[in-house]
Amino acid sequence: MKKRLAAGLLSAMLVFGLMGCGTSGQTSQQAQASETETIETVVTDTAQQEDQASEVTQETGSLVIAEQGIFSAGGTVITSEGTFDPDNYYTSREGSTSHVDHANVYYQIPEEETGLPMVFLHGYGQSRVAWMTTPDGREGWSDLFLRMGHSVWLIDQPRRGEAGQTSVAGTISTEPSDQTWYTQFRIGTYLNDEFTYNEGSQFPQGEDVLDQFFSQMTPDTGMDSVNGDQNIDTTVVAQAVAAAIDEIYERTGQDSILVTHSQGGIPGWETVLYTDHVAAIVAIEPGSAATVDSDVYNALLEQDIPITFCYGDYIGEEYTDVPAAMLWSYMASTADSFTEAYNAAGGNSTVVRLPEEGITGNSHFMFQELNNDVIAEHVEAWILENVS
User: Fold this and answer.
1) Nearest-10 Cα torsion for 378, 379, 382, 388
2) Backbone φ/ψ region at 228: left (φ over 0), alpha (ψ -120 to 50), beta
3) Do 349 and 338 touch, CB atoms closer than 8 A?
4) 201-252, pLDDT tens digit by residue?
5) How is residue 355 annotated by DSSP?
6) What's the maximum distance between 2 C-alpha atoms anywhere in the chain?
């Protein structure tokens, strides 16, 4: 099959934080277009997919939850001018208030709690649902880490999902984009009117699976996506996440392990400017690392926060059949630069490339794939070794 080699998408760079990130100290970058090539796409056949599925041995049995609930954290209250008119209450907006820009947190605490709380922050176009299940209905990371003894605290970041109230009026686009993000996420691409998969892909397959996956996409109510302005306010997100982490500390007396993904990785770094209750950061393919010598970087060092980056497969110039491979190679290089400087300054940072650990076939959504339990166990092993 033939397909076009995607140039580094400018919109993708914006989404993943490479064009700047508020006050978090990230530097602006711009993707450089590469020459168009003709390349081959390998479609993983059904037999291979069944073989992969047969190797998945997720733990089953009862999962006992001692406590669960939902709360909002952070945000602000805005007030309109004038005086509210109760006689015209249905149309009056003068002197009215609105609670906006908060995080919404769903949490579960297992009966046998043995580890630190884990706070999960989703990425662009997502909500906390991404951590709760997989497109083919298996256990998501929230259940897997509950089984390992952690309480889980799943955030809908401000202006997303259950935290949609916003102080900034966005414009939500209805322009179709499934194929764009599917390719950007390194699952495969779209050729001859069908979705294809990268060779050896761990992403579960089937039309029903893709329906579930694409239906997870969630608009940002404060983003002017019609005009291509990916104006996600990282400081608003970071402050709300920090407020949630402080609330978790008040409830549990424990610092939290912050797990971020993709666009969520950018405000994830900035969170440490607003709370000192982050025990560690697990960054799953973040848009970029914190900039060395920035305020965020210095806060991470000062608080002695251990950090691990985790990247999947199909990254690098050798993957000529994966359009986004080089873009992700650049993103991952920021983790290398960060880690070198952070460790030299006395910090603790590691960069994990799953293929180097013998874990192959994973895309940007590794926590939803057939071997998501294997990767979760890998993360837990790092936690046990590095987080006190």
Assistant:
1) -140
2) left
3) yes
4) 999 999 999 999 999 999 999 988 776 566 799 999 999 999 999 999 999 9
5) G
6) 69
Q: Where are the alpha helices (DSSP H) in 187-258?
A: 207-214, 234-252
- pLDDT, one tens digit per residue, over 27-65 is 333 333 333 332 333 444 444 444 544 444 455 689 999
Does the CA dihedral 206-16-282-235 come out positive or negative? negative
How far is Cα 249 from Cα 73, in angstroms, rounded to an integer? 13
Amino acid identity, position 26: Q
* Residue that the structure tokens 């491979």 belong to: 325
Give, for 307, the enclosing helix (H) or strand (E). Answer: strand 307-311
Helical residues (DSSP H) of 80-204, grouped into ranges: 129-132, 141-147, 178-184
How does DSSP classify residue 291? Answer: P
331, 285 Cβ separation under 8 angstroms: yes
Angle between helices 325-344 and 295-302 (to 10 degrees): 50
Say how far apart CA 142 and CA 130 lie, in whole Å: 9
DSSP state of 87: G
CA 102 to each of CA 3, 97, 198, 229, 279: distance values in angstroms, whole numbers, following the listed order: 42, 14, 38, 21, 22
CA distance 237 to 168: 13
* Angle 141-384-68 from CA coordinates, rounded to 5°: 40
d(CA 382, CA 159): 32
Tally Cβ neighbours within 10 Å of residue 349.
23
Which are the contacts of 207, defined by CB distance < 8 A and separation ≥ 6?
none
Q: What sign does the CA torsion over 358, 383, 278, 246 have? A: positive
In which residue are the tokens 């873009």 written?
A: 327
Contact call for residues 5 and 189 (beta carbons, < 8 A): no
CA 282 remoteness from chain centre: 10
Residue 167 and residue 237 in contact, taking contact as beta carbons nearer than 8 Å: no
Place of tokens 């069944």: 50
